[in-house]
UniProtKB/TrEMBL annotation, chain A:
<dbReference type="Pfam" id="PF02283">
    <property type="entry name" value="CobU"/>
</dbReference>
<feature type="binding site">
    <location>
        <begin position="37"/>
        <end position="39"/>
    </location>
    <ligand>
        <name>GTP</name>
    </ligand>
</feature>
<comment type="function">
    <text>Catalyzes ATP-dependent phosphorylation of adenosylcobinamide and addition of GMP to adenosylcobinamide phosphate.</text>
</comment>
<feature type="binding site">
    <location>
        <position position="87"/>
    </location>
    <ligand>
        <name>GTP</name>
    </ligand>
</feature>
<comment type="pathway">
    <text>Cofactor biosynthesis; adenosylcobalamin biosynthesis; adenosylcobalamin from cob(II)yrinate a,c-diamide: step 6/7.</text>
</comment>
<protein>
    <recommendedName>
        <fullName>Adenosylcobinamide kinase</fullName>
        <ecNumber>2.7.1.156</ecNumber>
        <ecNumber>2.7.7.62</ecNumber>
    </recommendedName>
</protein>
<keyword id="KW-0169">Cobalamin biosynthesis</keyword>
<dbReference type="GO" id="GO:0008820">
    <property type="term" value="F:cobinamide phosphate guanylyltransferase activity"/>
</dbReference>
<comment type="similarity">
    <text>Belongs to the CobU/CobP family.</text>
</comment>
Automatic annotation (TrEMBL), chain B:
<protein>
    <submittedName>
        <fullName>Uncharacterized protein</fullName>
    </submittedName>
</protein>
<dbReference type="GO" id="GO:0000166">
    <property type="term" value="F:nucleotide binding"/>
</dbReference>
<dbReference type="InterPro" id="IPR003203">
    <property type="entry name" value="CobU/CobP"/>
</dbReference>
<dbReference type="GO" id="GO:0043752">
    <property type="term" value="F:adenosylcobinamide kinase activity"/>
</dbReference>
<dbReference type="GO" id="GO:0009236">
    <property type="term" value="P:cobalamin biosynthetic process"/>
</dbReference>
<dbReference type="Pfam" id="PF02283">
    <property type="entry name" value="CobU"/>
</dbReference>
<dbReference type="InterPro" id="IPR027417">
    <property type="entry name" value="P-loop_NTPase"/>
</dbReference>
Length: 182, 142
């Protein structure tokens, strides 16, 4: 089966990337619009924010799948022809890379841990594309700065480069304008 | 003179390595080239600038040393790999704040001097200076 289209959209905070991603997706006829949310509520403000977003999307006819970690579980919830939006890479990476920090054993400090997770994620993305009609991936621009967290930033760079290489189209958002880079 | 510019971990060095393929080049990582070096790649300039600032070298002298390097390599191949570090939050550390200012101004000088400036965004090259004569969008984006 032919793979579904993949689009990568990245931008700074409040650059309009999510709105653009949603617009792109809703322009495509699909039986369902699925929102893969990677955000994890760690405080009441975040909880409220997630609930607000869920409600907004419900009104817009979205099906929300909360999947902060282990994206392969979301595969079971995706049906043929779905239009899928994943928001976003940076939160997913933080969730996976620091998983286990409460026990003092974050993934980032274990050899091969993130490598294995990333291989699984690459496979999951391929499989999502096989089922869904389209996959739009949203991420953040955080690499034009001093390196503060080398492991995180290095992974993010590698992941972004892979996604861009795999995507049919790639956009950089700035102030609500989408610049097509691929 | 060719500048390859972009954020950290965007694939700048890989792009340059592929561009050079088998050509003989002196690769200077975190340092300026020697006078005798012909055909050079200067990468990690920010590391070199940071080192000079930590040694209390003043900005004027740092700028002069960079300018002198550019002048001495005129007519030879010189590729500068520059990391964009100036779109983040103002650093808490004083030397990092200084570094941001200094490299920002050095980059402006270097961009003025360069015939070609290529920006790399997650492996995708985009010619942002020198486009008039050299921009062939299709080829440029591979």
């Amino acid at each position: 089966m032919a793979e579904g289209k993949m689009i990568f959209i990245s931008g700074g905070v409040r650059s309009g990337k999510s709105a653009y991603a949603e617009r792109r997706l809703l322009n495509i006829p699909a039986p369902r619009y699925v929102y893969l949310a990677s955000g994890q509520a760690r405080d009441p403000e975040m909880e409220e924010r997630i609930l607000r977003h869920q409600k907004d999307r419900q009104n817009g006819g979205w099906t929300t799948v909360e999947q902060p970690l282990q994206m392969e579980h979301a595969l079971l919830k995706i049906k043929a022809g779905d239009a899928v939006l994943w928001d976003c890479v940076t939160t997913w990476l933080a969730n996976e890379l620091y998983e286990g920090w409460q026990e003092g054993k974050p993934c980032t400090e274990e050899k091969g841990c993130m490598e294995a997770k990333w291989r699984k994620m690459q496979d999951t993305m391929h499989r999502i594309r096989e089922v869904a009609g389209i996959l739009v991936i949203v991420s953040n621009e955080v690499l034009d700065d001093f390196v503060r967290d080398e492991s995180y930033q290095k992974w993010l760079g590698e992941i972004h480069r892979w996604i861009v290489a795999e995507s049919d189209e790639a956009f950089e958002m700035e102030n609500g304008v989408a610049y097509k880079r691929k | 003179m060719h500048i390859v510019f972009g954020g950290a971990f965007n694939g700048k060095r890989q792009y340059v390595k592929e561009m050079l393929s088998s050509k003989e080049t002196v690769w200077c990582e975190g340092k300026l080239p020697d006078a005798a070096d012909q055909s050079v790649v200067i990468a990690g300039l920010e590391q070199w600038v940071k080192m000079q600032l930590e040694r209390q070298m003043d900005e004027e002298t740092i700028q002069q040393l960079v300018k002198k390097t550019v002048q001495s390599k005129k007519g030879q191949q010189q590729i500068w790999i520059l990391t964009d570090m100036n779109r983040g939050i103002v650093p808490v550390d004083a030397i990092e704040r200084k570094l941001r200012d200094v490299i920002g101004r050095i980059y402006q000088d270097l961009f003025k001097e360069a015939e070609l400036v290529t920006r790399i965004w997650y492996g995708i090259p985009q010619l942002i200076k020198g486009a008039d004569e050299n921009e062939h969008l299709y080829q440029n984006r591979r």
